[in-house]
Design brief:
The complex is a heterodimer.
Chain A (H helix, E strand, L loop, with lengths): L1 E8 L4 H15 L2 E5 L10 E9 L12 E6 L2 H6 L4 E10 L6 H4 L9 H7 L3 E5 L1 H8 L5 H12 L4 H9 L7 H13 L1
Parallel strand pairs in A: 1-4, 4-5, 5-6
Antiparallel strand pairs in A: 1-3, 2-3
Helix pairs in contact in A: 1-7, 5-6, 5-8, 6-8, 7-8
Chain B lengths: L1 E5 H11 L4 E4 L6 H7 L6 E4 L3 H14 L3 E6 H17 L5 E7 L13 H7 L3 E2 L4 H18 L3 E6 H4 L1 E6 L15 H4 L3 H21 L7 E3 L5 E6 H10 L3 E5 L1 E3 L3 H9 L3 E4 L6 H8 L7 H4 L7 H9 L23 H10 L3 E3 L24 H12 L7 E6 H17 L5 E6 L28 H7 L4 E6 L3 H13 L4 E6 L14 E2 L18 E4 L2 E4 L9 H5 L5 E2 L1
Helix pairs in contact in B: 1-2, 1-6, 3-4, 10-14, 15-19, 16-17
Bound molecules: thiamine diphosphate.
């Protein structure tokens, strides 16, 4: 079973990322369930999408302490969901900060020591310069696909099959940028 | 061929394959996508109705008229639609009639956690509940068969976790069904006391027949795995139970009426019988009332969503990892450029009490705006402020109600008619962003487009309000803070019912924005008043404030409120 959590801020494209993984599972002939977020929290709230790929999938949700990978599109969200990671799981973090409203207004402060905390928790994490790479690909919104590129490399998948999953999930006019984003993530 | 499909899409697919002709719905998370997907099939007539009551009435008409029909809504929508539903249970159907209802355990996007299964019982309407996308397709077709065979509307229940998850499906062709003949039959379709008394007998007989037949329907099934523990469950919980335990499982596909005899037999095959169900002890109480010993609620509780980890923890004491950190929360926010923001800024500035309503603007209740005093249900803002006025509350003198365009049409208009009729002294602000925003941009009668994107008559809110007798109807650009402040002040002062339409399309509808604003640091006095409007594009930074050019859409609201002219384009 491959259990993946995709976390971020509403509007960062967690949905598309999970659908690309769904297309990947479909091509591999594996069972798969995706649990998505629609509605209120898409308005800039903390969002989480669950992806489970395996021979036979029952619950659409990844359990706490069982994620093989967490793709975090934002630093604070990485920390918020890190307890979903299993012991030897890997946390891939887009090295970007998006301030939540309580921080914007000064009511709370953004934790300065996220990586230290993750280290203290004994998490296996890797920071990715997703925003820079997405900009390089031609659109800062492509962070989600950059992160997927990193993930596909980590799970030992070929770039070709990653691109095939991308092609069926992304509208034609955005394909070029996303292909670049995927490749940049894959080689990051 | 197998393909991944969102369960809500699968519900639409099931309706399509079942030959459904008419879908009428009102949006509501987590049910909205059913109707959006149904609208993609040219064979199905599909519409957004102004509210759930109308949607159900349309579906009832289509069904009696001879075509299979569907109405979709979120759980609280059933409250609005309950009136026609309870009587449709008496008339029964001609062609099949299904009401899809999506509950929201854990309230991801809702104002309460009500359990719609009680409606099935109260109205004597059978209810089906799928546990994945494939079942959604199959169960929809079954729902239409049951509807026609038993002459009853049928509820189709989802919960957020099922509605919004994707799993593999195999689809089939649509079964085209010619319209059934409509024959006038007042004894069946005209419900007044004499006819309804006869139909009530039919309802009881039908339910007795169904309650017996459900024991033999394959969608209710026992899966014997262990003789120690048996668990009765349905929907998402079925998946959790299968994964978390090796207990025997009784899976309910029809959650009302319950297959009592089949469950009794199942109970005899296990030492201990548990019921695991989210929300209320709906199954459990009925089993107990039928003398089947069981338990569950005392362990699992009524709140929130369950999961594999939660069931393992409660059942076996296996703790699941929890986050021990206290981190800044990340609540949803009004988008950068949201036209609702400036209105709340002015309401705060004028220190007005605000009876709120449901939509994106409900987010004005959160910090830093903290602008709402009440929020109950769709349409309530108007009636609530009228109530404040009539009880003589001093707060009423400095109070407004705020309501979105879709919500106003849904059920705010009746509040306005009441207020005018009963000589109220209230001010209602209609936040007209020209779309149904919160649920993801659905058209409504005031947008001038149908669900299929075709042009439609555009409801004229000004004319409507005037014809209701509203004494003063003003229209203001929601980005124009100066004018907003002036008009709101005037209208709150004015006796009688006034309405202000604060108009400006949702910022997400506009794809071409002017360049982002920025702060001239030498002019900025660091007063931070721009932070009080809660714009996600304005950030507090070391030594001042910054505008995030990635987010700013140059709506200009902060530009107007900055006393030092430090925010510029
Ligand atoms: C009875 C009922 N039906 C549906 C919903 C779901 N819902 C919440 S807000 C909303 C629409 C809000 O649209 P509008 O009033 O135009 O305000 P906006 O979000 O665009 O600001 C809907 C349909 C609900 N909460 N209650």
């Amino acid at each position: 079973m491959l259990d993946i959590l995709i976390v971020g801020v509403g509007g960062q494209g967690t949905l598309l990322a999970s659908r690309i993984l769904g297309a990947y599972a479909e091509r591999k002939g594996m069972d798969c369930k995706l649990s998505e977020v629609h509605g209120m929290s898409q308005r800039g709230g903390s969002v989480v999408t669950h992806v489970r790929i395996g021979r036979s999938v029952l619950s659409p949700l990844v359990s706490e302490g069982e994620a093989d990978y967490i793709l975090a599109f934002e630093r604070l969200e990485a920390l918020r969901w890190s307890h979903y990671l299993k012991k030897d799981g890997i946390l891939l973090i887009n090295d970007q900060i998006i301030l939540p409203m309580p921080v914007i207004t000064g009511a709370q402060s953004y934790p300065a020591d996220i990586t230290e905390k993750l280290t203290a928790e004994g998490r296996n994490y890797r920071l990715v310069q997703g925003l820079t790479l997405a900009a390089e690909a031609g659109n800062t919104k492509a962070v989600n696909v950059v992160m997927l590129g990193v993930l596909f490399k980590m799970i030992g998948e070929t770039e070709e099959s990653a691109i095939q999953a991308l092609e069926v999930s992304v509208p034609a006019k955005l394909l070029e940028i996303n292909r670049k984003a995927l490749a940049l993530g894959y080689r990051a | 061929m197998k393909k991944l499909m969102l369960t809500n899409e699968a519900v639409a697919r099931g309706a399509y394959e079942a030959g459904v002709k008419v879908v009428s719905s009102y949006p509501g998370t987590p049910s909205t996508e059913i109707t959006e997907f149904a609208a993609k099939y040219p064979e199905i007539y599909c519409e957004w109705a102004p509210n759930e009551k109308v949607a159900v009435e349309v579906a009832i008409g289509a069904s009696i008229g001879g075509g299979r029909a569907l109405a979709c809504m979120k759980h609280v929508g059933v409250n609005v639609a309950a009136d026609p539903l309870f009587t449709a249970a008496y008339t029964g159907v001609n062609a099949g009639l299904v009401i899809a209802v999506a509950d929201d355990p854990a309230m991801h996007s809702s104002q309460n956690e009500q359990d719609s299964r009680f409606y099935a019982r109260a109205a004597h309407i059978p209810m089906l509940e799928p546990a994945d996308s494939q079942e959604a397709i199959e169960f929809m077709k079954l729902a239409y068969r049951i509807s026609e065979e038993y002459d009853t509307p049928v509820f189709f229940r989802l919960t957020t976790r099922i509605a919004h998850s994707q799993s593999f499906v195999v689809t089939s062709e649509r079964e085209e069904r010619p319209l059934k003949e409509y024959k006038k039959d007042a004894m069946k379709y005209v419900m007044m006391p004499a006819m309804a008394r006869a139909r009530h007998l039919a309802v009881e007989a039908r339910e007795a027949r169904l309650a017996s037949d459900v024991n033999r329907m394959g969608v209710n099934r026992a899966e014997i795995r262990s003789s120690k523990l048996g668990i009765v469950c349905s929907g998402a919980v079925y998946q959790y139970v299968k994964e978390a335990t090796d207990a025997s499982v009784f899976k309910l596909g029809i959650v009302y009426p319950l297959p009592m005899e089949a469950i009794r037999k199942f109970a005899e095959q296990v030492d201990e019988l548990m019921v695991i169900e989210e929300l209320e002890p709906f199954f459990e109480d009925q089993l107990k009332a039928n003398g089947i010993a069981c338990h569950g609620k005392e362990i699992f509780g009524r709140q929130g969503e369950y999961s594999v980890a939660f069931i393992r923890e409660k059942l076996y004491g296996i703790p699941s990892p929890k986050s021990t950190l206290t981190l800044p929360a990340r609540p949803p926010v009004m988008c950068a450029g949201c036209p609702h923001r400036g209105v709340f800024y002015i309401l705060n500035k004028l220190r007005l009490a605000v009876s709120g309503d449901i939509g994106c603007y409900t987010l004005g209740a959160l910090a830093p705006l903290n602008a709402l005093d009440t929020c109950i249900c769709m349409g309530a803002s108007v009636g609530v402020s009228h109530g404040f006025d009539k009880v003589g509350s001093p707060a009423a003198k400095k109070m407004v109600s705020v309501i979105g365009d879709s919500t106003f049409i849904h059920s705010g208009i009746t509040g306005i008619i009441n207020a005018v009729y009963n000589q109220s002294d209230i001010t209602c602000i209609i936040l007209d962003n020209s779309i149904t925003g919160m649920t993801g941009h659905q058209d409504n009668p005031a947008t001038g487009r149908t669900i299929k994107g075709e042009p439609a008559y555009k409801l004229n809110l000004e004319a409507l309000l005037k014809s209701c007798g509203v004494g003063s109807v003003r229209v203001v650009d929601a980005y124009d803070l100066v004018e907003l402040e002036r008009v709101i002040k005037e209208e709150v002062e004015r006796p009688g019912v006034s309405a202000i339409i604060a108009r400006r399309p949702c910022a997400l509808l506009n794809k071409k924005y002017p360049p982002a604003l920025h702060i001239e640091q030498e002019k900025c006095m660091k007063c931070k008043s721009c932070l009080r409007i809660g714009c996600p594009a304005i950030e507090s930074i070391e030594g001042g404030v910054r505008i995030n050019p990635e987010l700013c859409v140059a709506c200009g609201v902060c530009e107007t409120l900055c006393k030092f002219g430090a925010i510029v384009g």
